[in-house]
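Rotation project, supervised by the postdoc (A.L.). Task for the rotation student: set up a whole-complex structure prediction and record inputs and outputs verbatim in this book. Inputs entered:
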Amino acid sequence: MKKNLFQILSLILIFYFIIGFILFPIYNLSLESFINLNNIILYLSNPNIYEAVLNSLTLSILSVIISLILGVYLAYLVHFYKIKLKSLLTSFLLIPIATPPIIGTVAFLYLVSDNGLMFKFFNNYLSFIKLNPVQGWYAILLIHLYSFYPFFFLFASASLKKLDGNITDASITLGASKFRTFFKIILPFLYPAIVSSSIIVFMASMASFSAPFIFADNSRFLTTEIYNSKINGDIQLSSFLSVILTVLSLVGLYIFTKFRNLNENTNTIKGTVRVLSELSKNKLGILNKLFLSILVLFITLPLLTLLYLSFIPEGALLRNVFNESMTLQNYTKLFSEEGIYKPFLNSFYMALITVIICLFLGTISSLTISGKKSFLNKFIEVFISLPYGIPGTVIAIMLILSFNSFNIFTFSSLIGTFLILPIAYTIRNVPVFTQSVLTGIKNFDTNLNEASYSLGASKIKTFFKITFPLLLPSIINGSLLVFINSMGEFVSTILLYTYNTRTVSIEIYSQLRMYNTGIGAVYGVLLFLIVILTVYLSRKYINERISV
Amino acid sequence: MSFLILEKISKSFNGINVLNGINLEVKKSEFFSIVGPSGCGKTTLLRIIAGLEKPDTGRIILDGKEITYLEPQKRDVGIVFQNYALFPNMNVFENIAYGLKIKKFDKAVIEKKVIDILNKVQLSSKINSPVYSLSGGEQQRVSLARVIINEPKLILFDEPLSNLDYLLRIDTRAELKRLQHESEITSVYVTHDQSEALSLSDEMVVLNSGIIMQKGKPTEVYNNPANIFTAEFISHSNIFSKEESLNLLNLEINENQVTSVLQENLRFENEDSSDIVVSDIQFSGMFTEFLLKFRDKIFKSVIPYESNYDVKINDKVKLIIAKDKFKVIELN
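Outputs recorded:
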């Protein structure tokens, strides 16, 4: 088929992006990691590397297991039992998914570390209870549980909605206990959902940086080792570790995908009757209520901690804060001191630039991919989504290797410039945006285009009058997702920022290192509010669209 | 002594009464039907018997034991669902063996019993098939086998034939009756299809808005409807008011009565001076249905097909009904 000018220009741009910003960096990373083979031999005899690999894998597997148990059990409770204020509870349960990892991590630190508010609270008011601070592995796992169980909860809840209530009734009337019914009928039914969420959580845990970075003490993890070796100037080691991390993630992805294919043929039946059971009748019911209440505390306490500390003068963790009165001085500083509001503006501009590039690049990519099935389009789809499987730390290392001097794609060095950050965010987010638009296109009824043609509209008119307006919700949804991800990005930022280009997430972290809690908390609160507001607006917008 | 007794069962959801003091008695080995339009409460009643819902008031007694608040697992009551509700993650064998495995039967015993029951429902060749590869009728037979194999005290059927095509429905109906008869398991069958209830049941009740309208053997209920609802819903009878009865049937009844006449008992012949007009004639194979209009009221007459009717649309006719075909119904 002959291509028009628009299509040719799109292809040139897409290939410029794929070759220059995905393949070229990957090539440089591979090159750098094996540049000196003697070093490789040295690395392979270094027990620290094995420890990092083992720890990262163990952390990821444990994270999958604990998030699975909590998420699936919650989905079961919410689906089968009468619970007061259920829809409010459900929204609550999803809060962690919208919390940028650095904020979650810092909030937990403020709460459960040895200087944390929980510790202080018990010391002050309930001193007869001896509390241990949560540190190291426990803290990291706690944060991972907090961040990752919503994936299992979401996927399992969506699946349960498709479960025919008569099937569980059939099991019960055939004599099976609720316990047996759960393990023999419900769990197998959830298998595909569990595998899908396991993939996401495994990849995210392997790539997790914030929690290990702040809480790891002496334990080594791949992401933190990549960062440390880069800071120590051993760029080959950090490249080598990056390759290991990426390969392990992809192997994990491959294994989980195999699991998913094993059980592809379980068909789903449309759901019918569902009678909600009472929760309160027996001991188990009371335990479950207690469990849900503790969970709500678990979700809200870190955020409440941030909110509280944002009203307390700096250095709260070093003092006994509960006697202090609250003040707005941290907030007024934010608006009056340039050094303090600048990171916010930086983050905002960078997120905005990222959204604009993604909007452009992602839209032409998804339109190209969803066009004719061809080798070229398949190639674009695979390579544009590739960065989704690459941890942020690794992407930063790749960019450092590729754009630290003259090169044929950007001509001058970008490292240390403002632009390198939105570029990193773009590489990480184009897959997200493209996926969102592709889903919109997949659900698009092509009969509508044909109807429009048959009524006499031209192709261009049809695109602007029919196709584009109907794809708009997924385009907007994708853009907001990209915006949220970029506003709070920490993982690649910490390897790429300079003092002038520091972002909110960096500032939250440096305030923490200075034992400053006030401004850090204000940043956290505002960032969280922006994220929640964005999610809320997109939901509202999309719901209104759907209800039309 | 009845095998299953329901006493004053009531149930409401969100302040709406779904069942209003239901009393029922079912004898051992009986095939008992509950028939009514959708929303009449019949499925809720079934779920209460199974223990999947708890009644607000009333008692349930099964085989001499009160089971009102007994957990469903311990009732020994099986259900056959309208949409089969087979376990999608198990094959035919595993589905049927499910209940026996829970009761910890010996492996060899389970295998033998499953093979026996599959022979009975004529599905031996499908023993290892995944359930989604079966047709609707086959799935329903597996669902029935899954219940019968446990030899429960009671089987509940929740509109089990509704999802099947007409011909398959008729076949499966006969099969169901045969299996129930052979196994002698007491059965309560819920349906909105009055012909199913009439053809299958030993005894039946008609349910409307959570109230029992009539109980009896199918022929009694059909021929002697006790109220307008049963007359219309079960027998599709023509109902004549006091004035119509006098004008058309030459029958004197009082204000609190109506006359019901079955469609097949309503005959007519040409009469030019009559006020009744043939407004439509619908041929439906074995029968022909005549719609007769008197003022604003339409009556139906169903007559076995004959090729040489001498009645045409717009003809004037008068009714001819034998005196013993009138059923006078008291209104309350």
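Student's summary: Chain B touches chain A at residues 47, 50-53, 72-75, 77-79, 81-83, 85-89, 98-99, 102-103, 130, 132, 143, 146-147, 150 (CB under 8 Å).
Supervisor addendum: Residues 82 and 160 of chain B are 4 Å apart (CA to CA).
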